[in-house]
Amino acid sequence: MSTDFTRSVRAVAGAADGTGVVDWDGVREAAKGATDPGEFDLSETERAGFADDVRAAREGLRETSGVSFPLPDRIEVQNRHHWIDANVDTFSRLMAPLEDADGGLFPGVARSVNTGTMAVTLAFLGRNVLGQYDPLLMADGDGDHGLYFVRPNVRRVADELDVAYPRFRRWIAFHEVAHAAEFGAAPWLSTYLEDRMQTVVDSVADGRFDRSQVTEMNTAMTAVEGYAELLMDRAFDEEYGDLRRKLDDRRQGGDDPITGLLKRVLGLGMKREQYERGAEFFATIADQTDVATASLVWDRAENLPTESELDDPDQWVQRVV
Predict the structure, then answer these.
(1) Does the model's pTM come out above 0.90?
(2) Distances (CA, A) of 116 to 14, 21, 132, 267, 298
(3) The domain spanning residue 50 has which CATH number?
């Protein structure tokens, strides 16, 4: 058996001892115990294929968008346990301000429950994430941005969609490198998101809830997801209509009850709406003008669409162009 639920239970139970509202070492152990790491025997041909996909994505996205950007220094092909390791660090960093706030992460809730909740979250995501661009939000210092591909998940989903694995892998590379293009072209974007995250944390610590900052952050992430969808389609160097149709069907398809519940709890339905709403916004602009005009969104923070402009791209064009 590739998962070890006894390991998970021990890790969560042991979290009751210690300080802090989440035992992140316990999260790591429990999430791995509940997750099959997946096959990770890469041939030289497959490893070279990943590298070629990333290079092709970089060149295609630069040519299509007119935006110059560097690739992250860390480009990793991972199994599910590798991804969990990387994202325990990411989640603990992002959630540190909430842990430091008065009342802790989840006021009145035991450390072991917090640890179990985060372990379930990371185990579920580790079984489903295909690729990830990590812009190192809330990190001290510059650090190395990361680009990750979860190889067992990419292979599994290619099989589920009945598409050739190398072609599907390449398409996912175009999407993740598109995120690197956004953050590379907009050096202000990380600070913009961090400032709003910190404001929300501070307001919660003061017993308030700053909805305007949450709305601005959600609008910005809708732009981030939508622009990546636009670029991955228009820059991809192969026919992609069937890939787009099948992946959209998968995002909207029915889940078993447990998976459906987890998606609702984790807000993944909202993420799908971000993809769709943002993609329609940028596709409308690119069709009416061109991709270079849509790329003006990254020139400065003031060029981000407002909540109302996301549903009326002509407003944005009149204001920005």
Answers:
(1) no
(2) 11, 11, 23, 18, 38
(3) 1.20.150.30
